[in-house]
TrEMBL record:
Pfam families: DUF4129. It comes from the Eukaryota. This is Defect at low temperature protein 1. Residues 209-265 form the Protein-glutamine gamma-glutamyltransferase-like C-terminal domain. GO terms for cellular component: membrane. It comes from Sarocladium strictum. Belongs to the DLT1 family.
Length: 366
């Protein structure tokens, strides 16, 4: 409470001191003209009175006008903060500050230009411009006006502007290719002759042969299909394996061109696959001499056929790891025609009415 009283007393004393100082100043200012006017009147020199009044009047007007202008300018400047424009022109700042700002803007323009993709060839001649970057000068080739830029691409992803594969991450498709090849192979299994279902179920022995074992790589599985004469080891299959392994296991993601080339080879591999002929395999096994297919009782060497139907006959397609949509010609109670959760690619069916043997399903698209 006492502190509040002390502040009030200090404010009164402080204000009174200024008022007293103003009164003393006003008295000192008026003493001289008052004395001059009094002597002029006494000496009958009235023109001096007119001159003094005019001079003092003009002086007071100039002072009041300057004070009013100063108050107006200060109020206007404070009201314009923050500014709707950046004061960086020559008239806004000093010459040294302007040169510093211009050098920074030129440097930013250079970085922005270098970060853009290159222009197409034949779009026009570039314009060489010298930019001053502080104490250095750098020549930058600026493209002509209305120049088309090159296509922007991020490795591993399709462009958002892609007409057929917008925002597709290639790795999600690459991880499914072995499963699609297996699913395609299973559709080529012959029907079970003992099945009474309509349509008949697939031959369990054929399904067991066409399944991919968990430990098999895609290269080994394609070799396995080649031994079954379902797929030929031609130049297309070799090129597909090379492109697939490079795209799947490389530390550098693939580009759009590489991905499309890989998928073209993948489609050719799917088209080249042939139905499994169990009778031809039986004939091949029957031609193997007994000395090469049986185990010698004395512990001799064994030369067994590469493929054993009996060892895999207990398997069935119901045990496959990834269900995929299969062609309508291979419909069976054990074949599921739904796309597995999280997959973006499936085998095409007759209902799709497309030439490609596969369909890429993007989220947000029907």
């Amino acid at each position: 409470m006492a502190q509040k009283y002390m502040q009030t007393i200090f404010r009164v004393v402080y204000g009174s001191a200024y008022i007293i100082a103003y009164l003393i100043l006003l008295g000192l200012v008026l003493i001289t003209p008052t004395d001059a006017i009094e002597r002029s009147i006494r000496n009958n020199q009235r023109y001096n009175v007119i001159i003094l009044i005019a001079c003092y009047g003009i002086t007071i007007f100039i002072v009041l006008f300057s004070f009013a202008v100063r108050l107006y300018v200060n109020k206007t400047v404070l009201a314009s903060i923050p500014k709707s424009w950046v004061p960086v022109d020559k008239g806004d700042v000093s010459k040294a500050v302007y040169e510093l700002i211009a050098a920074g803007l030129d440097r930013s323009a250079t970085v922005a230009y270098e970060a853009k993709p290159r222009v197409h060839k034949g779009a026009g001649e570039n314009v060489v411009r010298k930019l001053k970057l502080g104490s250095e000068e750098k020549e930058v080739e600026l493209p002509p006006k209305h120049t088309p830029w090159g296509e922007i691409e991020h490795r591993g992803w399709a462009s958002p502007n892609s007409p057929d594969l917008p925002n597709l991450q290639y790795s999600t498709v690459l991880a499914e290719l072995p499963n699609l090849i297996e699913a395609r192979a299973l559709t080529l299994a012959p029907p079970d002759p003992t099945s009474a279902a309509d349509p008949p179920a697939l031959d369990p022995e054929a399904v067991g042969l066409l399944q991919r074992a968990p430990h098999l790589t895609l290269r080994d599985y394609i070799s396995h299909l080649a031994e079954l004469r379902v797929l030929g080891l031609d130049a297309t299959a070799a090129s597909f394996l090379q492109h697939y392994e490079q795209a799947r296991f490389s530390t550098r993601p693939v580009t759009m061109a590489q991905f499309r080339e890989l998928m073209h080879l993948f489609a050719e591999v799917l088209r080249s696959m042939q139905p499994l002929d169990l009778s031809a395999l039986d004939d091949e096994f029957s031609t193997i001499p007994p000395s090469e297919s049986d185990i010698d009782n004395n512990g001799g060497n064994m030369t067994a056929p590469t493929i054993s139907r009996k060892s895999s006959s207990s398997n069935s397609f119901a045990q496959t790891r990834h269900p995929y949509a299969l062609s309508s010609q291979a419909s069976s109670g054990s074949l599921r025609s739904t796309l597995s959760a999280g997959s973006v690619i499936r085998l095409a069916t007759t209902d799709d009415r497309i030439d490609s043997p596969y369909v890429i399903h993007l989220s947000g698209q029907g």
